[in-house]
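Field guide to reading this record: the first block holds the primary sequence, the second block holds the structure written as C-alpha cells, and the final block holds curator observations. Each block starts with its own label. This record concerns Odorant-binding protein ABP4, catalogued under organism Lobesia botrana.

BLOCK 1 — SEQUENCE
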Amino acid sequence: MSVVVNSVPFKMNYLVLVILFIVICTDTAFGMSREQLKKTLTMTKKQCMPKAGVTEDKVGKIEQGVFIEEKNVMCYVACIYKTIQVVKNE
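BLOCK 2 — STRUCTURE
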C-alpha cells in the first residue's frame, strides 16, 4: 500500500495534525496558554478568510477534519499555513 503525498485528503489530514501539534506544544514550547493560542488562531482565521474569499460555512468545519475541496478553501489553508509559519512564502 502506498501513500500519495500530493493528494488533497492527505494534505488536509496533515493540516489537522499540524494544528493539533501546535495546540499541544504551545503551552511548553512557546509559552502561550490555550486561550492565547485560540485567540491567535481566531485572528488568523479572520485575516485569511477575506484574502481567500471564503465564508465561515466553507471553513467552519476544518477543525473537525471536514474540508471542501475548492480552490478558495485551499488558498485559505495556504494562508493559515503561511501566517503561522508552517510553510515558507515560496
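BLOCK 3 — OBSERVATIONS
The two ends are 32 Å apart (CA to CA).
Residues 8-83 form one domain.
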